[in-house]
Amino acid sequence: xxxxxxxxxxxxxxxxxxxxxxxxxxxxxxxxxxxxxxxxxxxxxxxxxxxxxxxxxxxxxxxxxxxxxxxx
Length: 72
Known about the structure:
Elements: H1 3-29, H2 34-63
């Protein structure tokens, strides 16, 4: 298996991890309403952001840093 195929497979796994993280966030909050939702959402959001940052860190290891955005 070539290095590119291996990297491509790992990037696909990271994409799946992103989808899973969002799904877990959604499922955690899905049945909550009113004050229960208001109380739970900030912590759920923080956990989601931590997971997404971890995934992005793993992606950078595979691909290198993303280029800086172009500003005009």
